[in-house]
Design goal:
alpha/beta; 313 residues; binds nicotinamide-adenine-dinucleotide; N-(1-d-carboxylethyl)-l-norvaline Dehydrogenase, domain 2; eight-stranded mixed beta sheet; Rossmann fold; 2 domains
């Protein structure tokens, strides 16, 4: 197995720029590819801004920023991006044919032992692996947005993935500061998005029913269970509460929980009216002009501080 420090990240968008930043911060040499210069430049600007936030939060020294940026080279040539890489991560759009074509090009130019990782959120690993010739060197590493900050990475191997490579990638994820979780079985939505979807479904159901306003529903999580979850997960929380209590709670509440098999009508009507969230200035909440960038900066600062706190324990 090749283990040089050359990494390729394909796609410099929301996820790719953060993944590239992570590797660069850990001393890897990163080739960041996108389809045109405008896209790679956008990715670079986001990395520069994020590194500044890391420095402002005391997570890195300001005078290390240039060195980290020097570890990143931008390219619009896939061949240049992957030919020397030992690990290639694709963070390209969630379109199956596009990913298959990308895998073909990667395998045409990559070295014979390069490890290929996909950041897919929704495709099953076995479906993606159909587009890969060397399946033993292919895995999913599913990062969370913002990838450079949120610690979790879910790792999903396909049936032919080499156990040695799976262990090696778990190790690399720890080296770049992540908390890897290895799935024993392929499952749509992996672990985190399934749990998150169950909660969001119930939150939208409560909002739709007029049980409380949006702010109250959000506060019920951020000041309640969400406050605990950064350190104690839902299963350990159950142990703390007492399994006898939780058995009663689940027996009493389960019949009343929302179990719809599609998104609620409230979401349909918001989407149809172009209330798509921060990107259109309004979704469940309103986002007046200029408030989006302020909120994003604030969110990233809060996450960085939480990250710092988590590292202390
Ligand atoms: N956004 C999220 O919160 C999130 C979280 C986890 C996983 N993901 C997954 O990560 C992947 C990327 O999502 P994103 O949110 O970064 O998307 P994005 O649209 O922000 O970025 C995708 C980038 O890929 C580039 N691209 C287009 N065609 C390409 C090609 N043929 N080869 C390489 N790059 C190409 C685009 O120019 C763009 O810059 C998807 O598979 C998505 O499901 C997204």
């Amino acid at each position: 197995m090749q283990s040089n420090k050359n990494i390729a990240v394909l796609g410099a968008g929301t996820m790719g720029h953060g993944i590239a930043q992570l590797y660069a911060m850990s001393g890897y040499q990163v080739m960041l590819y996108d389809i045109d210069d405008a896209a790679t430049q956008r990715g670079l600007v986001q990395i520069q801004t994020s590194l500044q936030h890391f420095a402002d939060s005391g997570l890195i020294e300001k005078d290390t920023i240039q060195g980290i940026l020097n570890n990143i080279q931008l390219t619009t040539s896939i061949q240049e991006a992957v030919s020397k890489a030992s690990i290639i991560t694709e963070a390209a759009p969630e379109i199956l044919d596009l990913k298959y074509k990308l895998f073909q090009t990667i395998e045409a130019f990559a070295s014979k032992d390069a490890i290929i990782l996909s950041n897919t959120s929704s495709f099953a690993v076995e479906v993606l692996a159909q587009g890969i010739q060397h399946k033993n060197r292919f895995l999913i590493t599913h990062f969370f947005n913002p990838a450079q900050i949120v610690p979790l990475v879910e790792i999903v191997a396909n049936q032919e993935s080499s156990p040695e490579i799976v262990s090696y990638i778990e190790h690399v994820m720890r080296v770049i500061g992540k908390e890897p979780v290895l799935l024993q079985k392929d499952k749509p939505g992996f672990i985190a998005n399934r749990l998150q979807a169950a909660l969001v479904r119930e939150a939208l159901h409560l909002l739709n029913e007029g049980v409380a306003d949006a702010k109250s529903i959000d506060t019920a999580i951020t000041a309640g269970p969400g406050f605990r979850w950064a350190f104690i997960g839902p299963l350990e929380t159950t142990d703390f509460g007492g399994l006898d209590i939780w058995r009663n709670v689940l027996n009493n509440l389960s019949p009343t929980l929302n179990n719809a098999d599609k998104a609620p009508e409230l979401l349909d009507s918001l989407v149809e009216n172009q209330h798509l969230g921060i990107k259109t200035g309004g979704g469940i909440y309103d986002y007046p002009e200029n408030s989006v960038s302020q909120k994003t900066v604030r969110r990233d600062r809060q996450f960085l501080l939480l990250n710092k706190l988590k590292k202390e324990f």
